[in-house]
């Protein structure tokens, strides 16, 4: 038996064992057989997707299903995974369409918080979510999601919940915690949001396709509806346990191929979170600080160069090859101090298949939550006003030039006519 086929079958066995454990708690359920069949199919389909490449299809056979999807998208019956901020939705084409999406940025800029807030918003909109958090445990995940609730505003932060520092006087107030727990149970308890926490360098990337198949099966998601999977973060994935230990770049490449297979076979939006090198982080800081200029002039010593949003394709640590094939690449960079205790973060889209490639906007980050930034709207309106003014000025100049040209033509015709009459005489 070839190694790939053995690996695929091992995936099926592992997935079925996990599914059996999950189903053991629902032996008395009336729809047990239906649940078991759906879960088993998701496991096998996921493992199959990881195996041999699909056979070629005739173009004619693809037309009907494709146009059915086109009509669903035009009518609004099929939509992308929604995102919680107007500015980001504008950059990525309304939301995260099925495919691979990539977020990169420096340490502490808020990549995980942004991804967690996207995931929570999607789940609250009815989209099943799997969040693979390789840097967080269950308590950390709960603290981060609770800090995003309206009941937690304005002064509850995930880090303070984790370390007991929250509330007036430095001590956690039991009554306020009871209130938060009630809000969490009410707003989060029944969401289709699943967390898989893993030890650093301990999560096997070959599980990804199977996990997505299982997610769809558990929630019986219609084929036209998306699911969202977040892998946070890419540099911490591990090689399959039964194989050789792979180098970081190879692991990232293979994990990204798994993400693409999951997106294709299971109509999923897969969000990959990535760290970046120190050199790229310095470039990002310069670009972020130059907001709203595009491009930004950067002077190092006696040389001056320009940094634009498009300069950051390939920014991820050992992940550049994948960014070129992703549907969306987003980069985060600090742009300066925002209102109150917030930091203004410049969000750029060096590449997007569905939105505004090469453009950027700003969001506000307070360490736990992200919010839209009024300054982005003001900047967009100012840019639009400048464009409208320049257009009006250009139109006025063009009209004046045309009038002047017409007058000169008429004068030339009159002069030419007089000369002709003199010749005839």
Protein architecture, described:
The chain has 425 residues and is an alpha/beta fold. Helix content is 49%, strand content 17%. The chain is built from 13 helices and 13 strands. The protein has helices at 3-24, 32-50, 59-75, 86-92, 111-124, 138-146, 158-163, 174-188, 208-219, 248-266, 278-289, 320-325, 374-424; strands at residues 99-105, 129-133, 193-197, 203-204, 227-232, 237-238, 268-274, 296-300, 303-307, 328-337, 343-352, 359-365, 370-372. The strands form three sheets. It has a nine-stranded mixed sheet, sandwiched between helices. The protein has a two-stranded parallel ribbon with strand order 4-6. Strand 10 and strand 11 form a beta hairpin. The chain is globular and about 105 Å long. The termini are far apart.
């Amino acid at each position: 038996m070839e190694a790939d086929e053995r690996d695929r079958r091992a995936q099926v066995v592992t997935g079925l064992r996990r599914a059996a454990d999950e189903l053991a708690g629902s032996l008395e359920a009336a729809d047990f057989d239906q649940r078991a069949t759906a879960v088993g199919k998701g496991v096998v389909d996921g493992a199959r997707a990881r195996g041999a490449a699909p056979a070629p299809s005739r173009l004619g056979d693809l037309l009907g299903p494709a146009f059915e999807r086109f009509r669903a998208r035009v009518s609004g019956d099929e939509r992308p995974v929604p995102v919680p901020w107007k500015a980001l939705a504008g950059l990525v084409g309304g939301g995260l369409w099925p495919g691979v999406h990539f977020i990169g940025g420096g340490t502490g800029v808020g990549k995980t918080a942004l991804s967690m807030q996207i995931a929570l918003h999607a789940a609250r909109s009815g989209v099943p979510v799997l969040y693979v958090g390789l840097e967080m445990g269950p308590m950390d995940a709960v603290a981060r999601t609770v800090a995003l609730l309206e009941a937690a505003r304005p002064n509850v932060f995930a880090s303070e919940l984790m370390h007991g520092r929250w509330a007036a006087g430095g001590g956690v107030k039991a009554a306020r915690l009871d209130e938060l727990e009630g809000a969490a149970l009410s707003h989060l308890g029944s969401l289709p949001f699943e967390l898989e926490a893993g030890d650093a360098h301990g999560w096997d990337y070959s599980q990804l396709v199977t996990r997505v198949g299982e997610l769809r099966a558990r929630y019986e998601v219609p084929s036209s509806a998306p699911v969202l999977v977040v892998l946070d973060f890419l540099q911490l994935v591990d090689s399959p346990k039964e194989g050789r230990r792979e180098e970081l770049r190879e692991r990232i490449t293979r994990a990204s191929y798994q993400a693409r297979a999951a997106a294709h076979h299971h109509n999923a939006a897969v969000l990959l979170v990535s760290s970046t090198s120190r050199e790229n982080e310095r470039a990002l800081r310069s670009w972020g600080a130059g907001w709203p200029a595009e491009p930004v002039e950067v002077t190092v010593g006696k040389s001056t160069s320009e940094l634009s949003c498009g300069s950051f394709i390939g920014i991820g640590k050992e992940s550049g090859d994948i960014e070129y094939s992703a549907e969306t690449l987003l980069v985060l960079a600090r742009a300066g101090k925002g209102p109150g205790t917030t930091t203004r973060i410049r969000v750029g889209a060096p590449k997007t298949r569905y939105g505004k490639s090469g453009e950027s906007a700003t969001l506000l980050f307070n360490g736990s939550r992200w919010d839209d930034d009024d300054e982005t709207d003001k900047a967009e309106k100012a840019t639009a006003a400048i464009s409208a003014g320049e257009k009006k000025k250009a139109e006025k100049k063009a009209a004046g030039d045309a009038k002047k040209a017409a007058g000169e033509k008429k004068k030339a015709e009159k002069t030419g006519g007089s000369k002709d009459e003199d010749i005839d005489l």
